[in-house]
Design brief:
binds zinc ion, single chain, 9 helices, about 300 residues, alpha/beta, 2 domains
């Protein structure tokens, strides 16, 4: 949804609440604590959107359990911040967000990190299958060498660099998941795909880096030998390498420095946006809000499939 539409449609707290209730419940409001449908709106003059539950006798609103709960920032500002962040192809610095919304940089930073946390919750639920590519890269620190395939130091794998290693796995033509890792060892490869990838019936393609061989215990694995050729029919890693170049453009364009602590948030934002790339902006805005609620409903849920 573009900024003007958000401003026109959601000028007040009431308008935002009504829309969030529609996204979360449709025509079927229910208690977020006990799931009961025996709920009714509270008649209170000063508090918009409060409901009573006749099942567990609690009082709640649509924000319960989401990134919006326990914040004093008015919802119209939240909505504008979400529209700006969701639409920013290369991410957005908190300084820019503060200027755009007329708020302090601290408030903008807080808003942006909560939005990224919601994106991270969505990314955490991904379960990938089919024809997959995995690879590793480095973010932060000095700008990297222009082409890693022609870089003779490539297999030094970050030794002597301040950059942080990141591993990613992508479905061919599909969804992307990225993860900050301590190193590019077999243990990191395992932590990337464990619980994230359906091993049965999937094929994972990587370059010849030896750490990826651990995959063979669990699933089919093919190697592309970059020293010899770039692409061998379907056996290539072009999709994940395209994702890396998007990731780097967003980091170098907006976040010149960010601490290791927040790297997972920025990775989640870049991954979330990659996975929205075929959607209209209107649908991404709706999708973001819907994702906030599905995360609230599924807190603690995890994938059943773990590696043996
Ligand atoms: Zn209840």
């Amino acid at each position: 949804m573009d900024l003007l539409t958000v401003m026109r449609r959601f000028p007040t707290q009431e308008a935002c609440i009504a829309y969030l209730e529609h996204v979360r419940w449709g025509d079927d409001p229910r208690c977020p604590y006990c799931g009961s449908r025996a709920v009714s709106p509270k008649q209170e003059r000063n508090r918009v959107g409060r409901w009573n539950c006749h099942g567990c006798h609690s009082s709640f609103n649509v924000l319960a359990g989401t990134i919006f709960s326990a914040t004093r920032i008015p919802l119209p500002k939240w909505f504008l911040a979400i529209a700006l962040l969701v639409n920013a192809k290369k991410s957005l610095s908190s300084h820019q967000l503060a200027r755009d919304l007329g708020m302090t940089q601290q408030t903008a930073w807080y808003l942006a990190q909560r939005v990224r946390k919601a994106m991270a919750n969505e990314q955490d639920k991904l379960f990938l299958r089919g024809l997959l590519e995995a690879d590793e890269t480095y973010v932060g620190g000095e700008p990297r060498k222009p082409n890693k395939r022609n870089n003779p130091n490539r297999h030094k794998r970050g030794r002597g660099t301040s950059k942080r290693p990141v591993m990613g796995v992508v479905e061919r033509g599909g969804r992307l998941f990225m993860q900050a890792v301590p190193d590019t060892s077999g243990a990191s490869v395992r932590s990337l795909i464990d619980g994230r990838v359906e091993p049965a019936g999937s094929l994972l393609i990587t370059d010849e880096w030896q750490a990826y061989r651990v995959i063979r215990q669990w699933m089919d694995h093919e190697v592309i030998k970059h020293k010899e050729l770039y692409c061998d029919g379907d056996i290539h890693t072009n999709n994940i390498e395209g994702a890396w170049s998007l990731l780097k453009r967003s980091f170098h364009g907006q976040h010149h420095h960010y601490s290791a602590k927040w790297t997972p948030h920025y990775l989640a934002e870049a991954g979330w946006k990659y996975n929205q790339r075929h959607r209209q902006p209107r649908d991404s805005f709706y999708g973001f809000l819907a994702g906030c609620f599905s995360a609230a409903a599924n807190e603690g849920a995890s994938h059943e499939t773990r590696l043996g």
